[in-house]
Design brief:
This protein is an alpha+beta fold and 185 residues long. Helices cover 29% and strands 22% of the residues. It has a single domain, classed as Dihydrodipicolinate Reductase, domain 2, CATH 3.30.360.
């Protein structure tokens, strides 16, 4: 799972200025899927096969990926955009918000019609903060690093998202130097 998808997770969990408190390796010891991030409220995020981001609740799910979206309720697909034949991504998202998320406690802002590039340019002109600000990007990258460290070392890690320090397990020396032999050629 890359930073783009973990960025979506961090955004949806309203954690752009925070992050997980633990990272755990897959139970089967594999290196491809199954690593988990745990947040201070008990929410878990795991790396699994399939859609890149899959939000589950007791009676439905929302699946998102770059340029794709699906909303299911009680086992039935209500709205989706997986390919051009499905219409418009914006339409699928807007219909879902209008019909089912009218009273949602968390509302995610959407960038202007020019996407992240336009939002960044608008922020430069206004001296404001873009939706995808540098802190959010850094914390999403940290989530990737925590997951990768659990795969690489097959150990659980405690993490302090405020101080950006290991609290359990982990070794700061893991973060020093390059892991890519070709860089030393």
């Amino acid at each position: 799972m890359g930073a783009h998808h973990l960025d979506i997770v961090q955004w949806a969990l309203d954690r752009d200025d925070s992050g997980p408190v633990a990272a755990m390796p897959p139970e089967d010891g594999s290196n491809g899927y199954g690593a988990r991030l745990v947040y201070d409220d008990g929410v878990e995020v795991s790396r699994e096969k399939g859609f890149h981001v899959d939000f589950l609740c007791e009676n439905g799910r929302i699946q998102v990926s770059r340029g794709k979206f699906r909303f299911e309720l009680e086992g039935r697909t209500v709205h989706q955009f997986l390919e051009p034949a499905d219409g418009s991504l914006n339409r699928a998202v807007l219909l879902t918000e209008r019909e089912f998320l009218r009273d949602a406690s968390v509302r995610l802002p959407t960038p202007p019609s020019g996407g992240h590039q336009q939002d960044f340019l608008d922020a430069v002109l206004s001296r404001g903060r873009p939706l995808a600000h540098v802190e959010a990007g850094a914390r999403s990258a940290i989530c990737c690093h925590l997951m990768n460290l659990t795969y690489y070392h097959q150990t659980s890690l405690g993490w302090d998202p405020k101080r950006l320090r290991f609290t359990r397990g982990g070794d700061p020396s893991w973060l020093k130097g390059s892991r890519r032999d070709y860089l030393h050629a």
